[in-house]
Design goal:
Layout lengths: L5 H42 L3 E6 L5 H17 L10 H25 L6 E10 L2 E3 L2 E3 L2 E10 L6 E7 L17 H8 L4 H19 L1
Parallel strand pairs: 1-5
Antiparallel strand pairs: 1-6, 2-5, 3-4
Helix pairs in contact: 2-3
């Protein structure tokens, strides 16, 4: 009868543990990859449903940042109740495009009233954003349509919010759930998936840089 020495027993046990570890690791990687694939699909759908407001200050000086916030206040005032009931994203973009000259003119007026001669430019763009949190909502990194106003050189810290649905303009009581599915709403309002948001942000950042090249 063949016997197994103590050293042989531990060798076999170590091999078994190593095989089990590799199997568990492989299963974890597969599960994580599948969950990230779903997360990626959801994130891209979310970015297609939202229009963001993006205001760039001339510089990071206290004065330029103050003027930026005054421009923000004026834009919010002008855009209060800007959308009709049941407005779609396509309609919202059309309305914003029509209102853009007025918004730029008013932003310039605010800058002049504060004693500055910085120019203001405005455009509707599709641009890359990192993960951003607005209130209880965290929007994943990616390319979003946005109304962008640039004061002067635009080298200062920016301010952003969700312009459609109108979460930061007027008193409509709009909510992100107005344009997202239940699953997507749960995703952006969840505080339990920070690691996925961060991993996805790194991935999207690399993709964006490669696209820009």
């Amino acid at each position: 009868m063949k016997t197994i020495g103590l050293s042989g027993f531990f060798v076999k046990k170590t091999r078994w543990q190593h095989t089990l570890f590799k199997s568990l690791l492989c299963a974890f990687v597969i599960c994580f990859a599948l969950s990230m694939t779903e997360f990626d699909a959801q994130s891209r759908e979310i970015s297609q449903q939202v229009v963001r407001l993006h205001i760039l200050a001339n510089s990071d000086s206290a004065e330029d940042q103050r003027v930026k916030l005054l421009v923000r206040d004026r834009v919010q005032e002008l855009c209060a109740d800007i959308y009709p009931k049941g407005c779609t994203k396509t309609e919202a973009e059309r309305i914003l495009r029509e209102r853009l000259p007025q918004l730029v003119d008013e932003a310039k007026r605010v800058v002049r009233e504060q004693g500055h001669d910085d120019d203001v430019s405005g455009e509707l763009v599709n641009m890359y954003f990192t993960n951003r949190t607005y209130g209880s909502v965290t929007l994943p990194a990616g390319n979003y349509d946005a109304l962008r106003l640039t004061v002067g050189s635009g080298k200062g810290h920016n301010w952003w919010c969700v312009m459609f649905p109108p979460m930061c303009i007027g008193a409509s009581g709009a909510d992100i759930s107005d344009v997202l599915t239940d699953n997507q709403t749960a995703l952006v309002e969840s505080g339990q998936v920070e690691y996925k948001f961060k991993i996805y942000e790194i991935y999207e950042d690399l993709v964006s840089k490669r696209r820009d090249k």
